[in-house]
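Problem: given the chain below (183 residues), write out its structure.
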Amino acid sequence: MERHLTVPFGEEEARELKSGDYVYLSGTIYTARDAAHRRMYETLERGGHLPFDIENSTIYYMGPSPARQGRPIGSAGPTTSSRMDKYAPALLDLGQRAMIGKGKRSEDVRKAIMRNCAVYFAAVGGAGALLSKAIVSSQVVAYEDLGTEAVRKLEIKDFPVIVVIDAQGNNLYETAVKAYNEE
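Solution.
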């Protein structure tokens, strides 16, 4: 199924998404990779506050290349999601609604997705230049010292993703392999 969805979105919208759905996201998301996730996690452990409102947020696991003249951002392809698996359950438990990346997730992340009625989306790896065309604006909002791994606020329009793990825990990477093997 193909859908258009405004981000941020809530539990009701997350519940309607199904593993395998093609979704075009428009609105506000944030970027964070390994170093930013580690810093956010350490901040929470010390009792501090995150640099943006985590409630119903979507975090894109991406660190862009430098922007070309006249563009808000450079190539913006996803990074491997499993590198954030250590931190993702804690952020989901705080109200994060969705993640965008590539690759498989741990069982702990899948359980946190189900527990919090969240969603894991995949963006196509290797298509960073194409994906950047759906990014309308980019602004560093935290951890500027991390360079490309700084947290950015992105405004996006029709950003293409696929639901990999839905709120019920259905995992496209597992069901697609099973369906293929049954043919």
